[in-house]
Amino acid sequence: MAPSADPVARIVIENVAIATVDAHDTEYASGHLVVAGNRIESVGAGPAPQGLQNVVRRIDGTGHLATPGLINTHHHFYQWITRGMATDHNLFDWLVALYPTWARIDEPMVRAAAQGSLAMMARGGVTTAMDHHYVYPRGSGDLSGAIIGAARDMGVRFTLARGSMDRSVKDGGLPPDFAVETLDGALAGTEVTIDAHHDASFDSMTQVAAAPCSPFSISTELLRQGAELARRKGVRMHTHGSETVEEEKFCHELFGMGPTDYFESTGWLGDDVWMAHCVHMNDSDIAAFARTGTGVAHCPSSNARLAAGIARVPDMLAAGVPVGLGVDGTASNESGELHTELRNALLINRLGAHREKALDARQALRLGTHGGARVLGRADQIGSLEPGKLADLVLWKLDTLAHASIADPVTALVFGAAAPVTLSLVDGKPVVEDNHLITADEDAIARATRDEARRLARIAAGA
Fold it and tell me: pLDDT tens for residues 270-303?
């Protein structure tokens, strides 16, 4: 008989505080995690089980908190190279100011911007990222392939929301005419991307969603046919919804109804759909999202930056709406990392009607982990630390000056300063070690993004 294959390699983490974010919010003041290959094999109190085979690494987690990896549910990577612009604008004015520049992007710019966006998130504890890319200027190259390639090289789990726009200025939209696709071109481009890149397997590293941009940049027919395409292909659907009062007014003037009713009329409510922002939602809107299982990507920093308002997250959660967190594009959230959103989701929502009862630290952590997994349709795979789930996890260092006097580790993580990441595993493989990316050269990415930002500025100035 041939010898059996070597047993799966194991990583053992002990003496660590653990917030599992499972259905019961199970926590351990001092516990263990065992990773076997790309799966979590064991999690519990005290030391790891004895007699484990093929342990390739043992980690003493004293002074650390282990959590599921953070999951980002809304972003626009290309905006990394237009940060710091139009800083005193509301959404519509900001879009009008920036679309002429964004319409000049090309493949090298998009790849560099994706690398910058991914690097900033990954080094801050994000293990699953997504990008809603909707600007496909004619002749700009393989933008979807560039983004997906950057995520693959970074080693993070990734969803590309293949966006599209077909309503330009001449049709009453906001983007320039040469920055939009035709209806047929947008649908064909989305289908090609799904066929080339979507992986529906349990441990998939790359998935694709169909994602027409927003009501004021797409036709009703693109929404309807986009939904039909997505459901025929078995992929999820994403768009912007109810972000501003201006959008509410736009929908009533153009379609005779508010955004939620408009989306429902075009097939865009359902448990395979999630929408970014959802700031201006009335009770009926929230009930419709809850009834249909439609998810929300809450982007508190961007909503504040663009003066959009405060989303009713406590009411959504109480109604059963799936809610995750999003960075949003870095032209409206220049920090570009998700830990800020844990903290700002909690603090900004306490400025709303529920005040100090709006969210607590554990609810904020759940939004950034299990909530994001639900929104992306992957809650059975990621988002909590449980045996059998994929080994996407983070060790946060909480024994330095920034956190050492806060007794509760979850409170320290959410309320405190951004915590250093001692280790981040994605699919059981290290991406961050001792607060540094090991899958990419941060300095090289910084140089590339700076150079591409300058090139884009020169091209836009000469247009």
Answer: 999 999 999 999 999 999 999 999 999 999 999 9
CB of 440 closer than 8 Å to CB of 119: yes
For residue 218, give the DSSP letter: S
**Cα 409-412-417 angle, rounded to 5 deg:** 145
Question: Is the alpha carbon torsion for 108, 98, 301, 167 positive or negative?
Answer: negative
Where residue 463 falls among pLDDT bands split at 50, 70, 90? Answer: low
Could you give the C-alpha distances from 462 to 57, 83, 449, 455, 458, in angstroms and in order?
A: 55, 20, 20, 11, 6
Predicted local confidence at residue 3, as pLDDT: 42
Q: Give residues with Cβ within 8 angstroms of 280, minimum separation 6.
A: 242, 243, 244, 245, 247, 248, 259, 309
Beta bridge partners of 425: 393, 430
For residue 112, report the phi and psi dihedrals to the nearest 5 degrees: -65, -45
Say yes or no to pLDDT of 4 above 50. no
CB 343 within 8 A of CB 363: no
Q: Are strands 323-325 and 39-45 parallel, antiparallel or unpaired?
A: unpaired
